[in-house]
């Protein structure tokens, strides 16, 4: 099942866990299941039913523009990092 | 990805396709652009760094003969306090609009207040002096630590510190806080035999592009808005205009003209919406040009910053823990590159225990804009200086300690992601083996320093079409504005696929109506991502051409091979035809062939660099002279080595300027006192030796030719490398940028 790296500023919601395995075939399912297990996490990552504009999603170390309904591989590792831009 | 093999076109050095236009002066830049009935716009800017705008009276200016229109923030649609997605990132729409024309407060000296369109630029300028603006002057906040004080004057009453969804209770200049944490930082420092902690300060620095911002706008009676301009991304200009003007994106066409440098500073818009507003108001085309003072005072520099760096290591040089606090000035509105700085600060090293805190802080300076590896240079100045001090303390060679701790494939960054195949170690080894590093440097007051740097690079969207001409050449249409030779590097990737010379590809950068969406030329993405799109579009051409050959020979398409520019049949017949000859038969085999591709590639791969510099320090004057400079960098695969070398040299030179001379100098009222190239001292060729650029090639698995972006990382190591060289020369650790003569003399205790 996919693993989610928990941002350090959210680990107060996950009992200090930094990497957790979460069921789900899409980003939406993964975030909803994360929320069910650790209430309050979705609010930090999402603006309504989309990823918050200030958050970037990395899947297997690669910045993606994954939509909430896009398929996520079973062995994927997800990171949520601040949105940035280059020069 | 291909092996790092020999290619026919890639790795060669053809003359750039736009070279003749550039050297003959025929290339059309924004200031050159002319259109019938043109009016000229001029922007009135705030004389105060922090002030409430009480009133604006335009009546005297309107009465001046030749004045055709005046706009203020009242002419902008009411902007909502909401986030707008502009492709490369999200911005607060109200902040975006207020930075174009201030609505209630002027937040920096140079903040645009109003604009005039007139029949010539002189009348427009004179009219600006007749605009009566009443200000209530407020105390400015000009430095990040001052802005973070609890009793600091507040720039925005609505800003509360945001920390991943948590919001502070009272107004603050600290717009946001971010954090990355890996391992157990306390345990890591406990395991260290040596711990070094230092503070660093960096100044406000401008990108210093030679061509000032410009824009010409025209509203057709049918509502079509066209903007001709200098930009790093026509599509992001279109997006910003649509949001700022609240105008349908389908009715906006942005035409990118040639660009005289950008380095990140020509992604944000400033006068383009102003030109559009004036054009709408007057019904005429309006051109707005900035002068150099406008550029310095009215456009985004890269932030000043304050950082602490703490690193611990064992006696054998193994780094056990690293901690930093990065406070970056965002300028007048939130959005500094502290996030990127936090991603890069310790990225070159595989460290088990890391804690990174970052703070985005508003101050009364122009809103910052991206500048070559934004945030990474500030961060590396601290990290690489402390690494140097660690090496000295542990009696280790400074490259050896980097080699011992250098990140490799499979290592996890502090911010989470795991590195794919990267070439950091190879850049260190290249520096170690270089004759520069193996030569002696023992003269009095001469010193040698080294430093490394990382930039993550990005992918994002690119579109390319390729149409085949009857003479075997092709026309390649792209949406990436060409800052540093990317017409050539993109064309070469298509040529390699098609088996034709680079000169047989005619690349053209077109407007937003003429190609699919293409993200900005930034993030070191263009040769990587648009080149990838050119590769795929060329593959599409090959596929279609195979079908034509099959038709010609009456065989199945699966029986057609293509190699080295020749199509052949593998059906037992000895049929063969060149790309050129088949191109001449397209009309007989079905008509035109047009290949296309849109890409959003996800494997940009990281870029690493390691630099070696020798300096001489004059202890009487404090002047630092660069004697020799060698920059090694992993380019993945250098498509056009001359332009890779050019990017490395250019980045190094800008880094040297940042290190030694460049800074905004403010008085107590928040006025920049050196807003000209005479007083804002950028290095010239007379100040510098030839920069020796050493290209290391560790192919990027995320690109068919192994390309990595090269444009940004070369600016990252220079300030730290030079600081370390200065220490080697005179025994003083410099912790503030720029390391200008006065600071050198202060550090020596001479003034």
Structure explained in plain terms:
The complex is a heterodimer of chains A (87) and B (751). Chain A has a single domain, classed as Ubiquitin-like (UB roll) (Roll). In chain A, 18% of the residues lie in helices and 28% in strands. Chain A has 2 helices and 7 strands. In chain A, the strands form 2 sheets. In chain A, strands 2-1-7-5-6 form a 5-stranded mixed beta sheet, with no helix packed on it. A two-stranded antiparallel sheet of chain A has the order 3-4. In chain A, a hairpin with a 2-residue loop joins strand 3 and strand 4. The mean pLDDT of chain A is 88. Chain B has 751 residues and is α+β, with helices and mostly antiparallel strands. Chain B has 3 domains: 150 residues, Aldehyde Oxidoreductase, domain 4; 189 residues, Aldehyde oxidase/xanthine dehydrogenase, a/b hammerhead (Aldehyde Oxidoreductase, domain 3); 296 residues, 2-Layer Sandwich (Aldehyde Oxidoreductase, domain 4). Chain B contains 20 helices and 30 strands. In chain B, the strands form 8 sheets. Chain B has a 7-stranded mixed beta sheet, with helices on both faces. Chain B has a 5-stranded mixed beta sheet with strand order 11-19-18-17-12, with helices on both faces. In chain B, strands 20-28-29-30 form a 4-stranded mixed beta sheet, sandwiched between helices. In chain B, strand 22, helix 15 and strand 23 form a beta-alpha-beta unit. The longest helix of chain B has 28 residues. Chain B starts with 18 loop residues before the first helix and ends with a helix. At the A-B interface, helix 2, strand 6 and strand 7 of A face strand 11 and helix 10 of B.
